[in-house]
Amino acid sequence: MTTRDDRLEAAVSAWRDFCRALEATGTEALAATLTDDEVDLAEGLRHMARMARLVTMGSLENHDARHPYLWPALDPHRKMGGDNPQGLYLSGPVNGTDTFRLRGTRGSARWVSIIVGQTGPPPYGSALFLPDLQIDDDGTFEVLVSPEPRPGNWLRTDATSTGLLVRQFFATPDAVEPMELALENLGTGEALPEPLSLDVVVSGLRRASGMFSAMVPMMQGELLAKGGALNSFATDVGDPTSTSGGVPGGNAVTARWALEPDQALLVRVAPPEPCAYWDVQVGNGWYESFDYRHRFSGLTCEAAELEADGSVVLVVSEHDPGVANWLEAAGHRQGHVAIRWQLSEGNLPVPDTRVVPVGDVAELTGLPVVDAGERARRRAELRRSFAARFQR
C-alpha cells in the first residue's frame, strides 16, 4: 500500500530530477553563447527560463486529449526554432484512438497549415495545407482528425499521435484577422476531467526534462555549427528542415550572420518554382525571432519588394539603410537569418550574400527608398499587427 511518505518521495525525486536536468543543460548552453556580448548572455538566460516554461506547459497543461482546446504553442514570450515573426501558432492535444473535430473560419492568413504532432522522429505526421483545405462559401471549414478515413478535410492519426498544430502566417502587418477555431473530442461528451494524480505530474515532468535537454542544445547547436561559414547559406544544401525536426510542407535555409554596426549583409535569391509561400526572418543566437512588436524582424513573399526578374534582395543591418526589405540586427553583432519555402517540391535555392558598408546599400541595390516618416508608420503597423494576433 502506498503511503504518504512514498508519495512525497516520488514527488521530491521528480522535482529534483527536473531541476538537475535544467541546471545541467542550461549551464552548458550559457557557456556556449555565439559572442561574448552582454545581449547574447542576457537573452540566453531568458531563453532558458522561456524553454523551461514552454516544456512544462506542454507536458503538464492542456495535455488531456479527452478535453482538448487550442492555445498558443509559441508567442512573444515563448520562442524557439526560428519562430515566424508573422505567425500565429496554436496547438491542442489529440490521440490516435478518438475522433476530433476542428472547426474554424478562414481568417486572413496568407499561409495555413494544420499538422498532427507525434512522438518522433519525425515529430510531425499527416498535414493539411491551405491550397488543399476545403472551405465553405461562408468562409467556414471543419477538419476531422481520426485513425479512420473521413470525407472532406481529414487528418490521419495513429498510436504515435499526440497533438494538433495550426499555423497561420500573415502576409502583411496591416492584414491580420486570425481564424476563429475550436477543437473538440467527439466521443467525450459532458464527462468531466478526472482529478489530478501524482503519476500524471511525475510523468509530465519527466517528459519536460527530456524535451528541455534535447531541444535547447539542438537549436543552439545548429547555429554554433555554422561558425565556420559566417554570412553564408552554403552549409544548408542537402539539409532540409522538414527531415531534421522542421514542419512538413516547408524547407528552410539558414545562415549565421556576423556584422559590425556600420555593415550590412545583402541577401539575394530567386524564390523557387513552385512555391506556395515563402518568408524570411532574423533573430538571435538562440534561434528566437527578434521582438516583432517593435523590430523589423521578418518579411513575407507579399510584403517584400521584388526585383523585375522575380528575385529578392534583403538587407540585414544594425542601422537603417533607408530602403525597403530591411531586417534589423537589433543591437546584435551575430544572429541568424532564415528563409522558409513552402511546397517547393524540395527545391532549396541557396541565396548569394555580400557584406557591404551600410551607407552604400541604397546605391548598390536600387531598392525603393523608405524615409523616416514611412519607417515610423511601418513600426506603428507592427504594433497593430501584434495586438490583432495576440489580443494585447
Task: Describe the overall structure.
By secondary structure, this protein is an alpha+beta fold. The chain folds into two domains: 4-187 and 197-215, Jelly Rolls; 229-390, Jelly Rolls. The protein is built from five helices and 17 strands. The chain has a five-stranded antiparallel β-sheet, with no helix packed on it. A four-stranded mixed β-sheet has the order 7-6-3-9, with no helix packed on it. Helix 2 runs antiparallel to helix 3 (198-224). It is globular.
Keywords:
392 residues, Jelly Rolls, 5-stranded antiparallel sheet, alpha+beta, 5 helices, 4-stranded mixed sheet, 17 strands, globular, 2 domains
Q: Gyration radius, to the nearest Å?
A: 22 Å
Structural class: alpha+beta
CATH architecture classification name of the largest domain: Sandwich
In this structure, how is the largest beta sheet organized? 5 strands, antiparallel
CATH fold title of the largest domain: Jelly Rolls
Secondary structure: number of strands = 17
Q: Give the spatial strand order of the biggest sheet.
A: 1-2-8-4-5
